[in-house]
Inverse folding.
């Protein structure tokens, strides 16, 4: 919730500085969940044109069971948070794209990185951090923004 609120304020600031009506968001992992929450619950659906996630656990991840913090408990597939945001349909006003990989060992099962209502792009053999490091990831994101 705090990350979603902070992102909303940041997007408002970017829009104010640039004069753009809508911005594009690209988010990795937990950033995709915070961004999704901001789009669904904090009014960003009117302010975002394209939303691309890179290995975000949209349906939760079983690997979140290996640690016991409030944030990780909320990323478990059966958590109240995941159940709550999963009930909300993806807004048609935002072009959503989910990048996922069968080799992402932090998103379990790997298909959990797919968000209903968005286009999905398989990036196998990427690992969870390949999205951030591999040039192919950024060329794919760039082409999807066109």
């Amino acid at each position: 919730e705090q990350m979603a609120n902070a992102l909303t304020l940041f997007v408002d600031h970017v829009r104010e500085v640039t004069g753009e009506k809508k911005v594009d968001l690209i988010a990795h992992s937990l950033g995709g969940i915070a961004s999704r929450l901001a789009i669904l619950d904090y009014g960003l659906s009117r302010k975002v044109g394209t939303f691309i996630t890179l290995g975000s656990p949209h349906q939760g991840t079983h690997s979140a069971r290996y640690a016991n913090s409030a944030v990780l408990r909320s990323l478990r597939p059966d958590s109240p948070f995941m159940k709550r945001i999963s009930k909300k349909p993806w807004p048609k006003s935002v072009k959503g794209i989910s990048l996922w990989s069968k080799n992402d060992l932090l998103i379990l099962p790997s298909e959990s990185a797919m968000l209903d209502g968005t286009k999905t792009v398989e990036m196998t053999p990427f690992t969870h951090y390949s999205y951030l490091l591999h040039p192919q990831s950024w060329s794919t994101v760039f082409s999807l923004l066109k």
Remarks:
- The first helix runs from residue 2 to 18.
- Strands lie at 23-28, 48-54, 95-100, 119-122.
- The chain has a mean pLDDT of 97.
